Amino acid sequence: MKRLLTAFLFFAALLAAWQIVFMAKVWSPVLAPSPASVGRYLWGVLRDGTLEGCLLVTMKRLLIGYGIGIAVGVPLGMITAQFRAVRDTVGVLALGLQGLPSVCWVPLALLWFGQSEGAMLFVVVMGTLWSVILATESGVRNVNPIYVRAARTMGSRRLHTWVMVIMPASLPFIVSGMKQGWAFAWRSLMAAEIFVTILTGFGLGQLLHYGRELNAMDQVIGVMLVIVFIGLLADKVLFSPWETFLHRRWGTAK
Amino acid sequence: MTLQQELAVSPSAKLAVKNVSKTFRTSGGRVQALDRVSLNVNEGEFVCLVGPSGCGKSTLLNIIAGLETPDEGTVQTDGAPIRGPGRDRMVMFQEPALFPWLDVFSNVMFGLKLKPGLSDAERKEVAQYYLKLVGLESFQHANIHELSGGMKQRVTLARALAPNPRVLLMDEPFAALDALTREQLYGDLQRIWQERRKTIIFVTHNVREAACLGDRVVLFSPHPGRIREEFRIPLPRPRDINSVDLAEHATEIMRALKGHLSDTEVQE
After folding, report:
1. pTM of the model
2. What does the pLDDT average to over A137-160?
3. Using beta carbons and an 8 Å cutoff, which residues of B are at the interface with A?
4. What number does CATH give the domain A86-254?
């Protein structure tokens, strides 16, 4: 309860500071709109369904891209950890491509797929996949070999060892890899939506982009707030329960 | 199958190690961990392998466990050569090696679930029996990190005993514990060994511990790892590690150990 109150006070203070800066007229109101006008904008798009539509388009793209990234990345990371030849090839490739900012995939995606959902998906998958591979790989390679030895003496073999020992033992790393993958997917998608206008769906990034085109600063800030909020929500809803469970079981909680 | 049948004392294994040699390649060159080591262990015997670090006693234990293969020589249980790890030979390491993602009960169940021929209810009954045997029945649902070092090793012991192995291989299982906890576990281990009639091979560098636990103490010397001498400990059980009789045996073994060590130094 006390933590909740602290957080509330902090954000209330932040909002108050914004209002004070607005009222002091430090910058032109066109460039620095008031909290109230941003709120009015958000209320408006919420009421007329624009926000809901954009959110649906964006979340659909994100979940499909992220899902593919995880479904391919986690097994590939495990294979990479297991075989030296894969580590020297796919592992190096992943390391190199992870360092490539995902927005750099946009030109290539546009030329390959045109202005389509395919281009969007491609950018998100490329943004997610490599970091998930690397996190899973390091997780599996960090599994204490004594767990595997102990399991083998109890009669565990190959697939059983993988599913019952190596996967749960590397779970903390895989979860943090998935979390990192989520952050990467989210960034990639926003970059792609800002740069690519496609007719099959109008997402949050595009809403942000048109805010700039229309010089509508309340729209720009409003959409940015929505993007921040979704990031926070995903962390609390998708990953916090996992992390709490892991901390309790492993005894790593502070 | 009932709990009684499952717990019916299984015939313990007779173990024969013949001319086993093992060399490791390290960054510093080749290290001969074992040089033509032969050892026979009788059914139900408690044998302690003692020696300074690097004498190959843990390597021999891993070979018997089937976790490593010898370069030369053979290891047989009841005349059958060892091929890889098996449920008939369970291992306890110095580190507890308990799985932190499972609670105490599920850790004990891990090996049991892999043992065929038991129903789920029977497996649970067996797991509970062994948790009770090591005195931890009230900690079934505890997480591993909530246990003390001594409790962790008790759970490990229960987990190793649960599939009813014939041989128990113990690699310095108490080395990381405090003296008081260790003394308690010496008592427990002797009691359980007598109750469950296992063949135990116990590796340690603590001479007193070896004299307290073993029917027989086998002395190793390093570089290359060889068996130098054997001592019988004919004391009655349960033995108290602080008893004077035991101290005499320990002193004798210690003297021999120092003698062999200075021999090897002279050779080098």
Report:
1. 0.81
2. 90
3. 65-67, 84-87, 89-91, 93, 95, 97, 99-102, 110-111, 114-115, 143-146, 159, 163
4. 1.10.3720.10
